[in-house]
Design goal:
The structure holds 2 protein chains of 2 kinds. Chain A is α/β, with parallel strands linked by helices. Chain A has 7 helices and 10 strands. The two termini of chain A are 20 Å apart. In chain B, 50% of the residues lie in helices and 16% in strands. In chain B, strand 4 and strand 5 form a beta hairpin. The chains are: A alpha/beta, B alpha+beta.
Chain lengths: 224, 819
């Protein structure tokens, strides 16, 4: 599903050029659950952003379902993103002005799903993450675990092929963390490909495969 | 989708109550000011709005050439109208509007209404002598009577609805037809028609119409011109009108030639006719006319300018405040983009928020505009307050809304779309706005302060000049002087001249009165003028000088502390036998010293007298005019103003003194009420327009400063948020609160200083332009600029200090923890 070859990414300021990703190559097969680990600043998040088409790459090739997407413009990326990719963030990133229901509904609005269909799907997914009873609450009225469940619901409501999770349990206690990991596992079992950045060895155990990074390069892969 | 957007926008605005409130206040003031200015401007621009064939209608004016100076005059010689009608071809219509001012009107007893007589105020009661063609030209509706027959007989009078209601409040319009009204106790008229009031503001402000009677005109009447006698012309084209005027000019030249041969006057007379499009008439302030309300185009343009500026300030303010909130919104924008929101949707969302705020501001302005107009009070004409044109008004509101929404909303929307979703992952969270040396937002703030600065310094300069004209030594002593004028209608009463002098003597006897003089006040618009000649030697060409003529009594020079440079005061006399001239007159006639002028004979045919004295120049006109040659003389018949000097030391006794004067007045002239004013007030009233300008700039200044400070407030907030971490680190390293406040503040002071520098040359230029009209004026000094800069700096410091101090005293642990 994802084939990245010789990926290079630099960050430049006026005086310094930092190499974030250095000739990185990786493959992810459809239906896989991959964890990416490594110390702070090793380029995990940059990689995730590039895989999620949020950031562009300086050199190399990126095939998404065998289509070269490295040179896609913002509009095309946005198209691909909203139909194929779901995101889960460490800090949940729910929109404060929207209720639980509306937050989950948002991706469906952007993909122009008709209202009736939207209602059905939002309710379905809210049931699945067991947050239906809080559908009219605002994010700041929920606990961290609940917020992350909403975020997961929002990530999957469009039935994406790929979910990108950036330290999804980073801000959660272990009980809530486990619940979220459980949810991701269920999704993966249902066929969704998952790439998760994490610092937690415990979380990494849920994955099929662990990629370890250092200084912008993959240094080790291990099957979980 | 749309519902959700609106819902989100409302929630967002509600969550950020503070900024929402600031935004609404700023925009309310901006839109409200625009609204008020629009009302004033639309009133002025709707003069003769629905006048049929306005484009083909012209006024016929007289253009005089006097001592090389061209002057337009609104009236014409009466016979010209009849000649235009009868002897000249090519016009569709010629309409006379000859104004008359009766002193009183009597309504005889009718039905339940008792007989009543009213003194008429010339400002309200203009009677127009005209012909049926007047009603053909203007779109009046007839409520009673009919156009063809209402104005065919000399005894007929047509009233407007307004006047009919006033004269006959209890009668229906049909019942008023046939009723009698009597002007000046002698001229009896029968009401023959009632027309509606004109539905638009108009210079055709007569309320009563009588028939203009044809009479045989004497030759001299072809050279007399009265400002109240106006003539309107309707033709197919401008060239037709020009052609008519050419024909008429030939007749006029011929009449003048006849007149010249008959009377052999010692003056030249250069008059030509001039046509002015009716559309131009309301704006012809260069040709002042009595009781005709005019507005100059430049005033209208300035008002439009002020309106646009204030609205722009409000929009800029909105932009500043919205972008100030940006860092807090980046997360939201980033998420939306990550989830696949297009730029269009984002822009739509920001514009929705803007629209909601603007609509709220509009609703609030609607509530405040009436109060605002009342606050402006004397600056706004009474008619404006009730004036409305729904169609244009909705057009104005729609345009204002659209412009405000687009200007305010598009830049923030564009900024939002620049947010990169990736930033919210990498915890960079906030993109930097306003941290570089030059940013749009900084330039907007600077622009706001440039505008505010222009208003502040402009106000200071206008104020300085006003104080100067009111306080400057006029060359005569006007302290504690009150003025009372005898009404013109008394002149016909028996023994008037003896009685007025008796009253003067009686007033002089009152304890609190220090002095009394009868005659023209030193500074007044009541001087008449003539061309006086002086022949230095027998047979040589005489020197002609246009002089203002003032009629005074023997106490006048003492009364006003005028300084006699040579010769002596006028001797007591009922008629003119000597002159006193001023220095300007002395120079104009060619006398080298005051003593040189004494005994020289000046004057015009039949009125040549020796110069008895020369007084030091004093301001006989306002400061827009130079001191010109003046001749003072005695003439008992021409004295009708009492100049009364009270005791300046004993102001507390003035009420008793005035009451005593009133008592004396009533004994001598029981038929008219005693009316007076203080001379200081009268002089200040000469600068009414300037006073109004002063008020207007004052108000605009307050608004501009306020809005600019709102903008600064927002900027201060965002900068303290942006530099939160830096402040925290500095504090940990030992920076004091005051050092941090200073650090945060210097940036604002720099912006205000830049604004002051940009504004200075603009103000200097504009103020000089304005002062050019004054012959006697202040010189622009650095002082107002200094004060203006200080005002701007102090108000901006006060505004930002709240935010900066708050930022500076925040516990650094708080700001650093979030990293």
């Amino acid at each position: 599903m994802i084939k990245i070859k010789d990926l290079q990414k630099f960050y430049r300021t006026e005086e310094v050029e930092t190499i974030a990703l250095n000739n990185l190559s990786m493959h992810v097969k459809e239906g896989e659950f991959v964890a990416v680990m490594g110390p702070s600043g090793c380029g995990k998040s940059t990689l995730l952003n590039i895989v999620g088409l949020l950031d562009d790459l300086d050199d190399g090739s990126y095939l998404f379902n065998d289509i070269e997407v490295a040179k896609f413009n913002e509009r095309k990326r946005s198209q691909l993103r909203k139909h194929q990719i779901g995101f889960v963030f460490q800090s949940f990133n729910l929109i404060d002005e929207l209720t639980v229901y509306e937050n989950v509904e948002l991706p469906l609005i952007y993909t122009k799903v008709p209202a009736g269909e939207r209602k059905k799907r939002v309710e379905e997914v809210l049931e699945k993450v067991q947050i239906m009873h809080r559908r009219n609450h605002f994010p700041q009225q929920l606990s961290g675990g609940q917020q992350q469940r909403v975020a997961v619901a929002r990530a999957v409501v469009n039935n994406p092929k790929l979910i990108l999770a950036d330290e999804p349990t980073g801000n959660l206690d272990s009980k809530n963390g486990n619940e979220v990991m459980q949810l991701l596992t269920e999704l993966n079992e249902a066929g969704t490909t998952i790439i998760m950045v994490t610092h937690s060895e415990h979380d990494a155990k849920y994955a099929d495969r662990v990629i370890r990074m250092l200084d912008g390069q993959v240094i080790m892969e291990s099957v979980g | 989708m749309i519902m959700l957007t609106i819902k989100t926008a409302l929630r967002h605005l509600f969550r950020n109550k503070f900024f929402t409130m600031l935004n609404i206040i700023g925009l309310t003031i901006g839109i409200g000011s625009c609204w008020i200015l629009y009302t004033i401007i639309s009133y002025e621009l709707s003069y003769e709005k629905d006048f049929p064939h306005k484009e083909q209608t012209y006024r016929v004016l007289s253009r005089f050439l006097n001592d090389g100076e061209e002057k337009l005059f609104g009236g014409i010689s009466k016979p010209i109208y009849f000649a235009l009608k009868e002897d000249v071809t090519g016009h569709n219509r010629v309409v006379p509007v000859f104004r008359q001012w009766p002193n009183s009107v009597t309504i005889p007893e009718t039905g339940q209404q008792i007989r009543k007589t009213e003194d008429l105020d010339p400002k309200q009661h203009i009677v127009v002598a005209t012909e049926t063609s007047y009603f053909d030209m203007l779109p009046y509706q007839w409520l009673a009577g009919n156009k063809q027959q209402a104005l065919t007989e000399p005894h007929q009078v047509v009233l407007t609805e307004k006047r009919a209601r006033q004269y006959f409040p209890q009668l229906k319009v049909e019942e008023i037809i046939g009723k009698t009204i009597i002007y000046d106790n002698t001229t009896q008229k029968t009401v023959s028609g009632i027309v509606t009031n004109l539905p638009f503001p108009s210079e055709f402000n007569g309320q009563e119409f009588v028939l203009l009677e044809r009479k045989a005109y004497e030759l001299y009447e072809w050279t007399n011109t009265n400002g109240g006698d106006r003539v309107y012309l309707q033709t197919k084209s401008k060239s037709d009108a020009d052609h008519i005027i050419q024909q008429m000019q030939v007749i006029l030249n011929d009449k003048w030639e006849q007149f010249r041969q008959q009377t052999r006057p010692d003056y030249t007379f250069d008059r030509s006719l001039y046509i002015m499009p009716l559309a131009e008439s309301h704006f012809s302030t260069y040709m002042p006319e009595w009781l005709v309300d005019k507005t100059s185009k430049s005033v209208i343009y300035s008002l439009i300018g002020v309106g646009i500026f204030l609205l722009m300030l409000a929009c800029i303010n909105y932009i500043n405040l919205i972008t100030a909130q940006m860092p807090q919104r980046h997360k939201e924008i980033g998420i939306r983009k990550t989830l696949g929101s297009s730029q269009k949707i984002l822009i739509f969302q920001i514009l929705t928020e803007t629209t909601i705020i603007v609509l709220l501001a509009l609703a609030l302005s609607a509530a405040f505009v009436p109060a605002g107009i009342n606050l402006l009070d004397s600056l706004v004409k009474e008619e404006v307050k009730t004036f409305s044109t729904p169609f244009y008004f909705s057009l104005f509101i729609a345009t204002t809304l659209l412009i405000t929404i687009l200007i305010s909303g598009l830049y923030p929307a564009w900024l939002m779309t620049k947010v990169k979703p990736v930033d919210i992952f990498s915890n960079r969270g906030q993109i930097q706005i306003g941290h570089g040396k030059f940013t749009i937002r900084r330039s907007l703030i600077v622009f706001q302060f440039v505008v505010a600065q222009i208003f502040i310094v402009g106000t200071l300069i206008v104020g300085q000049q006003l104080r100067y004209v009111v306080q400057k030594d006029m060359g005569f002593n006007k302290e504690a002087v009150m003025i009372s004028e005898l009404p013109g209608k008394l002149t016909a009463s028996p023994n008037f001249h003896e009685k007025k002098l008796l009253l003067a003597e009686n007033i002089r006897q009152i304890a609190g009165v220090k002095d009394v003089s009868m005659g023209t006040t030193p500074l007044s618009q009541g001087y008449s003028s003539s061309r006086y000649s002086y022949s230095p030697t027998e047979g040589a060409d005489p020197v002609y000088v246009r002089v203002s003529k003032g009629y005074i009594d023997t106490s006048f020079i003492r009364f006003y502390d005028l300084k006699l440079l040579a010769g002596q005061n006028l001797r007591y006399s009922d008629t003119t036998n000597t002159f006193i001239i001023n220095e300007a007159g002395m120079r104009a006639f060619g006398f080298t010293t005051p003593d040189d002028a004494l005994g020289k004979i000046i004057g015009q045919d039949g009125q040549k007298y020796p110069v008895a004295g020369v007084v030091k120049d004093f301001h006989q006109l306002d400061f827009f005019h130079e001191i010109t040659p003046l001749v003072l003389m005695s003439d008992k018949q021409a004295l009708y103003i009492y100049n009364i000097k009270l005791d300046a030391e004993k102001r507390q006794h003035w009420p008793q003194t005035i009451a005593a004067i009133q008592e004396k007045w009533t004994t001598v002239f029981p038929e008219t009420a005693f009316d007076y004013s203080f001379y200081d007030d009268k002089i200040a009233a000469l600068y009414e327009k300037e006073q109004q300008l002063f008020k207007l700039t004052n108000i605009s200044t307050a608004i501009a400063i306020f809005i600019s400070c709102l903008g600064l407030f927002g900027l201060a907030k965002v900068i303290s948020i942006q530099r939160n971490k830096e402040i925290g680190i500095r504090k940990v390293l030992g920076a004091s609160v005051s050092a941090i406040v200073a650090m945060l503040t210097q940036d604002f002071v720099r912006m205000v200083l830049i604004a002051t520098l940009i504004a200075a040359p603009i103000i200097w230029w504009a103020a000089n332009k304005w002062l050019e009209d004054f012959i006697y004026r202040i010189e622009i000094s650095g002082f107002p600029f200094l004060v203006g800069g200080l005002i701007a700096i102090v108000s901006s410091l006060l505004t930002v200090s709240f935010q900066t101090i708050k930022a500076a005293i925040t516990n650094p642990v708080k700001s650093l923890r979030s990293e």
